[in-house]
Amino acid sequence: MRLEGVRRVFDDRIVLSNFHLSISPGEFLAILGPSGCGKSTLLRMIARLAPPDAGSIAFTPSENFQTAFVFQDAHLLPWRTVLENAALPLELTGVAREQRRQKARKALEQVNLAEALALYPAQLSGGMRMRVSLARALVTGPRLLLLDEPFAALDELTRFHLDVQLRRLWQASGMTVIFVTHSISEAAFLAERAVVLARREGRIKLDRRLELPGERTNELRGDARFAEESKLLLDQMEEQ
To answer: What 3 state SS string does the chain have?
Structure first.
């Protein structure tokens, strides 16, 4: 994926200006920056939910691939079971009932919710609801997964567990992941590469490939290498 000269303006306020970024297939990229710097706007344009005012966003080899988007709120339908919520994207595209339920079961197994298929959203914890949202994104077999601060409203321990799970799902699937977050430690734990945006006009302050092991467990959070990478990201975030 290649973004060249991308510009986006809201009410005469320049959110992104002459923005350039290349993302390799299979990469896990974290995008950080202060509120209002254009992180979510950038993600929506990559998802083709909003067009840039100028510049281009090109996909290689083509745009004919599945993209999934996970928002901060799980947005589950309260009258549908966990299985029915996970199967919804396939239902909307006309996949037969038994086939979509089978794929939804598999996606829910990937996020450790195989025992919760018949439950309703009101019966789930916040972390479980977010896992259903993640399964709903995975059910279509996306090659590009976009996440806009999906774990921001969760407690820290739940976030830690979901970070480990998401990292493993990425390693198993080979999909490209772009993860927007305010959390420096979350970005350092999850991503292979981190981009820090400046407060104004989406200028890239830091584009760094993180020097951390491929296999990441919660023990890494106490490692000196993790602390060093987190400090590098923090320094750039503070110098706005």
So the answer is: CEEEEEEEEECCEEEEEEEEEECCCCCEEEEECCCCCCHHHHHHHHCCCCCCCEEEEECCCCCCCCEEEECCCCCCCCCCCHHHHHHHHHHHCCCCHHHHHHHHHHHHHHCCCHHHCCCCHHHCCHHHHHHHHHHHHHCCCCCEEEEECCCCCCCHHHHHHHHHHHHHHHHHHCCEEEEECCCHHHHHHHCCEEEEECCCCCCEEEEEECCCCCCCCHHHHHCHHHHHHHHHHHHHHHCC
83-95, pLDDT tens digit by residue? Answer: 999 999 999 999 9
Identify whether the C-beta of residue 15 lies closer than 8 Å to the C-beta of residue 8: yes
User: CA nearest 37: which of 190, 240, 206, 183?
Assistant: 240
d(CA 41, CA 148): 10
Q: Write out pLDDT tens, residues 150-200.
A: 998 889 999 999 999 999 999 999 899 999 998 999 999 999 999 999 888
**Which residues are paired to 10 by β-bridges?**
13
Domain chopping of the chain, boundaries: 74-142
CB 165 within 8 A of CB 195: no
Average pLDDT over the chain, rounded to an integer: 92
